[in-house]
Specification:
Strand content of chain A: over 45%
Largest interface: A-B, 32 and 28 residues
Mean pLDDT of chain A: 94
Low-confidence stretches of chain A: none
Shape of chain B: globular
Structural class of chain B: mainly beta
Structural class of chain A: mainly beta
Order of helices and strands of chain B: EEEEEEEEEEEE
Distance between the termini of chain B: 41 Å
Shape of chain A: globular
Number of strands of chain B: 12
Radius of gyration of chain A: 13 Å
Mean pLDDT of chain B: 94
Oligomer: heterodimer
Number of helices of chain B: 0
Radius of gyration of chain B: 14 Å
Order of helices and strands of chain A: EEEEEEEEEEE
Number of strands of chain A: 11
Helix content of chain A: under 10%
Distance between the termini of chain A: 31 Å
Number of helices of chain A: 0
């Protein structure tokens, strides 16, 4: 158990809908990262938050957004869902991640999203 | 731009065989970090090792060992005396460490290891 929790574990929804994925980092970790794992794209970085502020952005679609709250948990919002958004979404956390060095990222169990 | 290549998409071995998973990376930075993660059939990503670019010493942890060679930009992973429980997808990942620009991981495509009894 990495100490990172993600809810829900599975999510099935229809095209055009909006969903919210939730992540709680390990105790003491300030950075939260979101990754998408799909069969065609592999594991891709979406976005990083550090202590409530966006730190880095990857291949995140405009239909997707995220935020990190004062208690450091994070939510990833996916809207106008398409079939191609079906994937495993991972959250990870690290102690720091402020730049200059890279701490180990510990991953949650993931949320499997199925868009029908 | 950073890139990680795991040329072996799938490897099949018989239990107790040794197996090496290859990882080749590309980066322009002199400071960077390399990682290996394991993804068992249950789906979670399990951290195995983190190594920075200034530490080329090889590491051994039980049946696992890692060979980091900057000259060939490789960070290979060897499992000695493989076991069925080692069956999983293994990912190599790279993170550059620019100041205040985040710490994203760039993953390779993964190598699926199947260990047969």
């Amino acid at each position: 158990d990495s100490g990172v929790t993600q809810t829900p574990k599975h999510l099935i929804t229809a095209t055009g809908q909006r969903v919210t994925l939730r992540c709680s980092p390990r105790s003491g970790d300030l950075s939260v990262y979101w990754y998408q794992q799909s069969l065609d794209q592999g594991l891709q970085f979406l976005i990083q938050y550090y202590n409530g502020e966006e730190r880095a952005k990857g291949n995140i679609l405009e239909r997707f957004s995220a935020q990190q709250f004062p208690d450091l948990h994070s939510e990833l919002n996916l809207s106008s869902l398409e079939l191609g958004d079906s994937a495993l979404y991972f959250c990870a956390s690290s102690v720091d991640g402020a730049g200059g060095h890279t701490d180990t990222q510990y991953f949650g169990p993931g949320t499997r999203l199925t868009v029908l | 731009a950073q890139k990680v290549t795991q040329a072996q998409t799938e490897i099949s071995v018989v239990e107790k065989e040794d197996v090496t998973l290859d990882c080749v990376y590309e980066t322009r930075d002199t400071t960077y970090y390399l990682f290996w993660y394991k993804q068992p059939p249950s789906g979670e990503l399990v951290f195995l090792i983190r190594r920075n670019s200034f530490d080329e010493q090889n590491e051994i942890s039980g049946r696992y060992s890692w060979n980091f060679q900057k000259s060939t930009s490789s960070f290979n992973f060897t499992i000695t005396a493989s076991q069925v429980v080692d069956s999983a997808v293994y990912f190599c990942a790279l993170s550059e460490a620019p100041n205040n620009a985040g710490n994203m991981l760039t993953f390779g495509g993964g190598t699926r290891l199947m260990v047969k009894p």
